[in-house]
UniProtKB/TrEMBL annotation:
This is Hemerythrin-like domain-containing protein. It comes from Dentipellis fragilis.
Amino acid sequence: MFTSPRDACKRANAAPCWLPLSPTDHILYPYSPQSLRFMVAVKLDVTKEIKIDHDNVCDLWCRFCAVHALHFDEKVAIANTLMREMVAHSDAEETSVFNDYPHLGLPGAAERNKEMFAKVKHLVCDVSTADPDYDIVLDKAVKNFIVHAVNEEDEQHPILLAHLTPEENDRVARAFIRAHKMASERATVETTDIQDKVVENTGRRQYVDVKFQHPDPDVW
């Protein structure tokens, strides 16, 4: 179980499950402007798209824990991005993938996931970057998120893959990516109870880039 910064770093830096295994696998992951330019229509995998979010949170947490000697604003920017990514991921799953769970051999799992997400969001609401000890609360939010991520990947994803046809998997994956894009935009732009807590000491919110990117679901 990945609950420490060191474990999160190992997870984020480990070879992704979608590392090329054959001469043709490189067209799937990881995505880059160069590879996207030459891609043909391919079937997406919702479990890989979800894992991108999980890995981004782990990578951000690793970066956050490594910047104690850097400027406060940089640490805040990483914290902002962590909170945005956790909230956007939970909202995206709740409005897309979880709608199919009852028909995919996972009755009750969606509600358990939502309960975990509610706990994470509650903790995010308690994060105030004006508090010198805000990283303690953020630590709890990230650990709860990673516990969910490990459970989802180890217990739920194999069941999803066993019940989804390639076409259904592709449809759900694209729906998740679209929902994630909308949720991320809301988390960045709109003022909500959660996002009011993202940053209180600057005129505009500051973010950092995430390590892994989703493809455009409407291009292929």
